[in-house]
Structures are given as C-alpha cells and as structure tokens.
Design goal:
Two copies of one chain form a homodimer. The first copy, chain A, is α+β, with helices and mostly antiparallel strands and about 475 residues long. Helices cover about 35% and strands about 20% of the residues of chain A.
Chain lengths: ~475, ~475
C-alpha cells in the first residue's frame, strides 16, 4: 500500500505540492531509470522554498515513517533520484538563488537548485569560473552534482565538483539543520563531514546551501581534434600524454563507432575514425603545451591534429556533449543497457578500451566507447534490443565483464554517476564487507529512521528490497 | 587507576613492547603538549609491524576496555597523539615501508610510518613528487599527516595532503580491516569514507597503508624574497596576488618580529622588516609569472624583491622551516601559549594580521606572526612567562581574540594542526551543535567502545573529561 502523504498539506502551501499524475511521473524517471522501467512513482511531489520547509517536511516524514527522495534536475543515470519506495519526491529546483558572490575571495554561495551554467554566467564578469562540471552543466543543478559527486571533461585538470565545494548547509535525515566546511580554503577542524556528504546521493542529508570556490578564467585557450588510424593508437596517445604531464584541460576519447553515431544522429561530419578531442588552458605559453602534446601524438601515429582557438573548438565540445544522446538515438530498436562508467588507473586505460571492443566483437554487439580518458574514465554503452532476451543476456555479460575488469585492476565501478539503483550489486565487490558495514552505520548516524532515499546504494536484502530497518 | 595493559605481551613479541619509563614519556609529549604538561603518560608503548598486529592489539583493547592512542612522529602541536587516558600508545613508525611505486600512474603505496621526505626521495628519479607536505616533512610521517589532514607551504598551489591520497587501508576502532578509495583518480562509489578518515586524528581508525597520488616535478622553479616597509603593505600584497590569480607555489608572510627572532636564534641576517617569501613552479613561462607578481608587489610599495633559482631560494626555505623553533627559542623566559593556526578567507587576511599586531601592542605581549598566507592561514604565537599568572591571562585573551575573530569572519579555528586537546572548546563554536552531534555518531559508528584516542576533539564533558561512553 502506498504511503499516506497527505500531511504535507499541513506544512506547505498548495502551490508547492502536487498529487497529480503528470508531475509524479516526471519524478519517476531519470536519464536511465525511465528507459528501463526501474523505480516507482512517488505519491506526491513537493517544492520547498526554504531550508526551514525542507526541514519541516523531513521531520514530519520521520513522524509518519514516509520516504523522502530528494530530486534535482533528473539528469542522473543510475536512478539515483528516482524513488524506490514511493513516498515524497522533494524537488529542490525552486531553491535556485544566488545568495552572495564574493569575487575577491573567489567564492559564491548558492542554493542547491541553481543550474550549473548559471553559476558561470553569474561570475564571468568577475573573470571567474566554476571549473569542473559534468557535460550536462546546462541542465543539471549544483545540488544534484554535489549529491552525486559529479565530474566531467575538465576534471583532468581541475578535479571533481566536490573539490570546489568549501561549505554546505544540510538538513539531516531527522530534519536537523547543520553546516559543515567553512569559508576558509583549508581546515583540519573536526571530522570532515562535508566530503562525507558530497556524493552521498541524498541518503544522508539534503543540501540546502553551498559555498563554492571559483577559479580565475584562463588567459589562453586552445582546442582541437586529433584523428588516429586505430583505437589503440588513440588510447595509448592519451596514456602517454597524461604520463608525460601534458597540461590538458580536457582530453576525450571518441571511438569510430561513436563518431559514426554522431554523424548519423547529429549530422556532424566527423571522420570515421577514432579521435581525441583536446583543450588547453593557460595564462601564458600555451603554444608550447600544444607543441608538447603534438610531439606525443605524433609518436603514436596521429593522422591529423588540428588545433584552433576557443571558438573553433566550441563546435567539437557541442558534439561531445551530445554524444550520449547520439548513442541513444542511433537505432530505434536498440537501447543502452546501463550507463557504463568505470574509472581505472591511466596505465590500465588502453587495455580496458581494447577489452571493451573485443567483447563487443566476440558477443556481436554494438559497444560505443567514449569518455574522460585523461582520468581513465571509460563510458561504454552496450546497445541491445530489449525484446530479445538472448541479446539482453549477451549484453549483460559484456557490461559486467568490463566492470569486473575495471575492479580487478584497482578501479571503481562508477567514476561519476554514483551507485543509485544501477550498481548496488557492485558496492561490496568494490569496497569489501567492512567498509560497507561502516557505510551502513554512517547512514544510521545521519538518518536513523531510513527516511532519505531509502533502498539505494546498499546491496539489496531479501527482506525489504534494500530498505534497511535499523535497530534503535 | 591506570589500565592493566599486560595483555599486549600475548599479542606481540617483547621487542615490540616497552613498559619502560623513557619510552612511555617519549610518547607523552608532542611539540606542544610536552611544554604545557597536558596529557598523560601511556602505560605501555607498542610497535606493531603489520596490519594484522595493529588489528589484534585493537581487538584485544576492546575486550579489555583499554584506550589505544596512535602515535606517529610526535610532531603534532595540539596534543593530537598524546594520550589523555593512559592505556596503549601505538607507535606506527616501524611500519615504514614503500610497498610499490607505479610511476606510469603517478602513484605510490606506502605504510603509514614512512617519513614524508623519504617518499619524495623514492620517486624523484621518476621525475615525480608528493607535492603538498607540512614544513616538518623531514620529520613527520605520512600516516600522521593523513591523520591530521596536514598541509603546508605548497598548499596554495597543490592543495592539502589529503587531496593527494587516493586510497587507504584502515583498522577500525573494533579492529576490523577495511579499505576505502581506489587506484582510480576519481570515483563516485559509495559514501566517501576515505575523506572522512583523513583528518580524523586517529579517533576513527588507524591507517595501515596509503595509496598516494604524485605530481610531475615542474620544469622551472624560481624563488625569492620581497621586503616591505610595513606589515599592512605585505599582507595586502599577498591578498592582491592571490586575488589576481598569480600562480605561486608558495607565498609566506614573515613579520619583522619573527625575522628578528630568526636572526637572534638562527643567525640568519634577515632585514628587520616584514617580508614575503615566494616560490614559483612552471613548465614554461615562469619569468612572465614572476613579472606579474612583481608588478603587484610594486603596487604595494615593495622595497626590494630578489628572485633567484631554486638553489638560491633554498636558503630562505630553510629559515622558514625553522621559524617555529626560532620563536620558541627566542627568550628562555617566554614560552608559546598555544600554537595559533587559524585560516580565513583571503580578503580577511590583511585585517586579521593587523588585528593580531594591535592586540599584541594593546596587551603588551610579543606576538610573532607568519604562515601560509596565500591560503589565508595565519600562524600567530603569543609568548608569555608561564610563571606570571597575570601575563598568562593577558596571553589567553590575545590568543582567543584572534581565534574568535577568525571564526566570526567565516574561517576555521585550525587550518592544519587539528583539534586534539588544544582546541576542543572551539569545535562546537565553529561547527554548531548538530554537526558535532553527527561527529559523535560517526565516532560511535567506527569506534563504538571509544577505544581509539579517547577524550580528544569533542568538547569536554563534566563526567569523564571528554571520554564519551556510548550507549549500546
């Protein structure tokens, strides 16, 4: 029986609540869970407009034992924000204000619902930038990025989103308001709850304010495209560039299959060959860095390496940002099984790319690969006809084999998309029993009644499909 | 009555145990706690040589309800590793091996007892470096740096020690062995226990292995000294350099009083004036960066700015590294009250430096200030005659006033030395009640019997001097 959520009417005005089907269904699908029909429809969607309202809803949810699943832009790809046990979907997108910009300290305070690119628009006139965001920065919210510990193309130079978060205001699973971090750029004060909360996928608390650190915009930018004869050359060139310390701001691998899909779907006219898209940022001496990179690419038989200014590179990045859609839209009969997103040490990157390709051939499946290669982050997509059981099974084997290989070589089962509902079975495989037990205890510390986003991340238990009822 | 620790003889061979006074007293004093006579002497010192031995001692300590205080090099300055409740001092310095160097991945695996500078010696031949360490890197261990979330002169460019830790093996408070993080340079997998454990001051677990990320050695280095007519000019010049995005690898403020103390104690021949010590790292274009910095210093009336190669700068850094000792040794009648180590947003740095100076004059005390200015990190030392009660009281007022001011402007009560026993009364002031309650719960999650380094960090309770007995 679904949870009775009528009590929200006592807390919020009616224009911040919807029991309507359309809104509820909108909050039951992200970029993956919708496709594969995983997760459930919440009973109600609420739009709090203040920290106090977030806290009041969560406190009441504790009283009524109703799950609350925080919701941002719905751009996650592991079902992270899709409810598993109905209850309340808490949509934070109306809390989207810029609270303060402190350009002299390279800092900005924002509410969680602000879209990533809006932060950059707000600080550009000060010559500043929030440098590390996912490719979906035009659509995704800062709060969602923090909850997923997101990262992206520029992580190779600037680190993850979380590395640029100085402080947070958070409502805990019991509805208490806490702050962590500070406005200082470093601290050794107390346990580091801030970095614990970053990436906790809305299971430990709801972020209601974030203090972000900004960087100065680089004086010089160059970007371009390198075309290789084969995929091995391209992935080895990336490995060599990273190992040699080339200072790249982005370095992305695109295999020939992904290029063909982009051409078919986006009419991009890319060569039918493996490519590297690359960007450089510097305050001076950028041509020397480009030349250094070129010398390494030439050692790996680059066929063509065109580098231009920021504007000429922008077209390439537009293509790169839409690559995921191109893969999804390539063939109406074929859908992606899961979002493949593993990260390995850079020396393991070329063999992993090769392995994914070989598996695709062995199992006769389309497996386009691309991603933030400089971090050793491989995005691979196994395309299958969902109505063909045998094909789905083959696909599962390919998907899992790459993931297992990544873990075997010391990598992670998810570089940037989190565990959500998609990777629960890999958590213990990656971290071991003791660490997962510690994670459960941390969950209990912040959310003793298992109200926030229940059923996610931890391996499913037989009893309740992952909703762990803690002993008190 | 002291704890009966004789059970350690059943776990470790006799050459890994000492009940002798000399060793026990050696483990009852760090660079601060010894001076002020805070903390107690442990009943026994043990030197485990493997993860299994660490775990076995901690498991037995749980059975016998005996505190275990992890010990590294004793170079902390807040009594972090000095026992508060006797029991076992667990000295990790015999676990000091380099386990594996993976130069192509810019990674090294080490045991916790290795001295920081030894890591750099081991990787230099590969052109690599562990770039962010405290000034005590020749004496302090990697494990101690991780436990304290240490940082140092190069943090302004390279971040904190913790930013370069990819993975940890840790023995929990119950003696279970867990791993966290991975060899991948980024991950969104599970709760971020790694960064929670970094800086937890040996209260949540004992680090038994660390995977560190390395950086390439820069191709170019320059360093030098800028002399200013007054302290305001110097601190404003630093603020302006940081705000303008000058790419410095180190930027340290030294006030005239510290310079005089260095001259008296170390015979350094520094000018009697406020100074900035600065260093630049780059792969190319370093002269442009130096020129950019010079133009900013000139706008703040720099009297003299000499920049030379790495070797010529090394002498300056030797002075800087020993400044703490110079301050301590300046006058045998005067001892430092507490290590003052606050960090504020960079715009608040010049007024804070000014405030510390004004307080020194107002209360007629010597208050030398220096520190990692580019991070807004101020080290200030209030010197008092400990036998003069009235002077000690004045000193306390100055010490606290600076600290309160740092917190008032959004900073932290400890930039790099942790809470330990020295700053327990500021934890709740900085983080608030809810966050401290969450920290207590996290402590309970990792160490339910309060075995590891009990009595530290949390505000003292009336009952047991901070040793919180958790309900089960």
């Amino acid at each position: 029986m679904p949870h009775d959520c009528s009590f929200v009417g006592e807390i919020l005005p009616s224009d911040q609540i919807s029991f309507g089907d359309a809104e509820r269904e909108n909050h039951a699908a992200d970029w993956w869970a919708g496709e594969v029909g995983i997760g459930v429809v919440p009973e109600v969607v609420v739009w709090p407009e203040s920290t106090e309202e977030v806290a009041a809803v969560i406190r009441a949810a504790n009283e009524h034992d109703v799950p609350v699943t925080p919701w941002a832009a719905g751009t996650s790809v592991e079902g992270n924000a899709v409810p598993k046990f109905d209850g309340i979907s808490m949509d934070l997108t109306r809390m989207d204000a810029i609270l303060e910009v402190r350009p002299d300290d390279f800092q900005i305070d924002v509410q969680p619902g602000i879209i990533g690119s809006e932060v950059n628009e707000a600080v550009a006139s000060h010559g500043l930038v929030f440098p590390s965001m996912p490719s979906s920065a035009d659509l995704s919210t800062i709060g969602g990025m923090i909850a997923n510990d997101a990262s992206g193309q520029q992580t190779v130079k600037y680190g993850e989103v979380g590395d640029w978060v100085l402080g947070l205001e958070v409502v805990t699973g019991e509805g208490a308001v806490m702050t962590c971090g500070s406005r200082a750029v470093k601290t050794s004060s107390g346990y580091n709850l801030k970095d614990l909360l970053i990436g906790s996928e809305g299971m430990l608390g709801v972020v209601t304010r974030a203090t972000l650190r900004l960087d100065g915009l680089p004086e010089q930018k160059r970007g371009g495209r390198a075309v290789f004869a084969d995929l091995d050359d391209a992935s080895e060139a990336i490995y060599d560039a990273v190992r040699s310390g080339v200072d790249v701001a982005k370095i992305e691998l695109i295999d020939a299959l992904s290029a063909r899909m982009a051409n078919a779907h986006l009419d991009t006219g890319l060569p039918d060959a493996p490519m590297i898209f690359v960007e450089f940022h510097a305050d001076h001496g950028i041509e020397e860095e480009v030349a250094f990179c070129r010398s390494i690419f030439e050692a790996h038989d680059v066929q063509q390496f065109e580098v231009g200014d920021e504007a000429s590179a922008a077209e390439l990045w537009k293509i790169r940002d839409e690559l995921g859609f191109a893969v999804q839209g390539y063939d109406p009969d074929l859908t992606p099984m899961h979002p493949g997103d593993v990260t390995v040490p850079i020396s393991e990157y070329p063999p992993l790319v090769r392995y994914a390709k070989e598996l695709g051939e062995e199992y006769d499946l389309l497996v386009p690969t691309f991603g933030h290669a400089g971090d050793g982050n491989l995005h691979y997509t196994v395309l299958v006809d969902q109505s063909d059981e045998e094909m789905v099974e083959r696909g599962e084997r390919v998907y899992e084999a790459v993931l297992e290989r990544a873990l075997d070589v010391g990598g992670t089962c998810t570089g940037e998309h989190g565990i959500g509902m998609g990777k629960q079975q890999y958590l213990e495989r990656e971290h071991g029993e003791v660490a997962v037990e510690m994670m459960r205890r941390v969950k209990r510390a912040f959310d003793p009644n298992d109200i926030l986003n229940p059923g996610k991340m931890f391996p499913e238990t037989a009893e309740e499909g992952g909703r762990v009822r803690f002993e008190h």
